[in-house]
Design goal:
This is Glutamate--tRNA ligase. By secondary structure, this protein is mainly alpha-helical. Among the domains are: about 100 residues, Glutamyl-tRNA Synthetase, domain 3 (Alpha-Beta Complex), CATH 3.90.800; about 45 residues, no CATH class; about 100 residues, Arc Repressor Mutant, subunit A, CATH 1.10.10. It is built from 19 helices and 12 strands. A 3-stranded parallel β-sheet has the order 1-2-3, covered by helices on one side. The protein has a 3-stranded antiparallel β-sheet with strand order 4-5-8. α1 links the parallel β1 and β2. α6 crosses α7, α9 packs across α11 and α15 runs antiparallel to α19. It binds glutamic acid. Glutamic acid binds next to loops.
């Protein structure tokens, strides 16, 4: 039997860490067994679904290179399939129309809670719906859940799970507006798409017995289920789309690369000995259900930073360059050719944890500086500094070879001539060429910015200072 897994997000929020982990585990399981991986968008909850979320999910999965073999299928395009099966079920008597008003259901629920009973539908229409058949009253369709016996299944992570049918009520499979519900569509799709292994979050574990009963009623095969434990935030609260869970897109925007994100989410609930770093190939070979943890795991942004740093330093130069240029393009950062970005990356990327951190440390090489935005610039505007800068300009203008060593030598000569400490000269230059007081090694920055831009910016600083003194 060919393994077939699926990732079936509801586009009611962005792709977040928990969803991406479900996708990764399902993808790895399919890849490991040479099976196939299906992407299905569960968009029947029309009130909460949003196309921006669909785009976000597709973008996140593509960025992480979790390629799907079939789909994306949209449940909203499959309504006819669901409708026909519901008609069939009504005809066969395994589903029934329920005409109970919201008012009656509310009252029922209130009484049950008052009597310390589990709130559930009392199956009134299961017996009497035939009498109301021709009525115009709006109705929902309910599944005739077996009344006696048990449902049991062996969860691939949690082992045997057994639920009494007494615990389950006749759940709704079609709403009064004619739309089929999640619990119905998911069952029909898993069946019709020949899904063999359902890997999903443990928040769905209560749905599984209902879904198995439904599959049994349709004589459909039952897939194997694996319910992955939840992820907690750093204060121990369950992560969800609605709270602190960060979307994959925001990690991408911050400059995290696919290998690091995948490695990070892989380890949120799965382990192999003490190993921390897993290449994609290793993930595919080593991934198994046995090593998925039954207990919740906790997000740890420090570990993600560490992994990103590791991969930025250990992937091939071509791979890193391609991530870097894609990052710049999607963040609309335009790099001009005057800067030797390849060597800058080679030399300095190792000091940074993310692409964003790297870029923001060097963006001034590209972007013009607005000197009036520099903190306390007025304290630097004096005639001595202007004199130093004019001399510096002249000396650098005459420099014919633009080497780091020559640049450093010139700076040292300057400090001697004006009897000022190196740090002060460096700060002055940093303000002029970077618009900030901290940058990496000053001679290196002068070297990378290039002679023309360097002289232009020093000249601007002189002019700014002169005009400030005049005021
Ligand atoms: N659409 C569901 C969700 O986003 C997942 C359904 C499933 O995996 O069975 O939570």
């Amino acid at each position: 039997m060919k393994v077939k897994t699926r990732f079936s997000p509801s586009p009611t929020g962005c792709l977040h860490i928990g969803g991406a982990r479900t996708a990764l585990y399902s993808w790895l399981f399919a890849r490991k067994y040479n099976g196939s991986f299906v992407l299905r968008i569960e968009d029947t909850d029309v009130k909460r679904v949003n196309d921006n979320y669909v785009q976000d999910i597709l973008y996140g999965l593509s960025y992480l290179k979790l390629n799907w073999d079939e789909g994306p299928f949209y449940q909203s395009n499959r309504l006819n399939i669901y409708k026909n099966i519901i008609l069939f079920m009504l005809k066969k008597g395994i589903a029934y129309k329920c005409y109970c008003s919201q008012e009656r259901l509310d009252k029922l629920r209130k009484n049950q809670i008052l009597n310390k009973q589990k709130p559930r539908y009392d199956r009134q229409c299961r017996e009497y719906c035939a009498l109301l058949k021709k009525s115009n009253i709006p109705f929902v369709v309910r599944f005739k859940n077996p009344i006696n016996g048990f449902v049991q299944f062996t969860d691939m992570i949690r082992g045997l799970i057994c639920i009494s049918n007494y615990e389950l009520d006749d759940f709704i499979i079609q709403r009064s507006n004619g739309m089929p519900t999640y619990n119905f569509c998911v069952v029909i799709d898993d069946w019709k798409m020949n899904i063999t292994h359902v890997i999903r979050g443990e928040d769905h574990i209560n749905n599984t017995p209902r879904q198995i009963n439904l599959l049994n009623s349709l004589c459909a095969p039952i897939p194997l289920y694996a319910h992955v434990s939840m992820i907690l935030d750093d204060s121990g609260v369950k992560l969800s789309k609605r709270n602190k869970s960060k979307s994959i897109t925001s990690y991408i925007r911050e400059g995290f690369i696919p290998e690091a994100i995948l490695n990070y989410i892989l380890r949120l609930g799965w382990s192999y000995k003490d190993q921390e770093i897993f290449s994609i190939n290793e993930m595919q070979n080593l991934f198994n259900m046995e090593n998925i943890s039954k207990s919740p795991s906790m997000i740890n942004d420090k570990r993600l930073l560490w992994l990103n740093h590791y991969y930025l330093n250990n992937l091939s130069t071509e791979t890193i360059n391609s991530y870097f240029f894609t990052y710049c393009k999607s963040n609309k950062i335009f790099l001009d050719e005057s800067i030797d970005i390849q060597n800058l990356l080679k030399e300095f990327l190792c000091h940074h944890n993310t692409l964003e951190e790297f870029i923001s440390s060097y963006l001034y090489l590209y972007k013009d500086i607005n000197l009036s935005n520099v903190d306390n610039i007025q304290t630097y505007c004096n005639s001595i500094n202007i004199k130093i800068l004019k001399f510096l300009y002249k000396k650098f203008f005459l420099l014919t070879c633009w080497y780091k060593s020559d640049i450093l030598l010139l700076l040292k000569q300057l400090t001697k001539k004006f009897n000022v400490c190196f740090k002060n000269i460096a700060t002055l230059i940093r303000i002029g060429i970077a618009g900030r007081k901290n940058t990496p090694n000053i001679s290196t920055i002068i070297f990378y910015i290039g002679k023309n831009k360097f002289l232009l910016r020093i000249n601007n600083l002189i002019k700014y200072m002169q005009s400030y003194i005049l005021i």
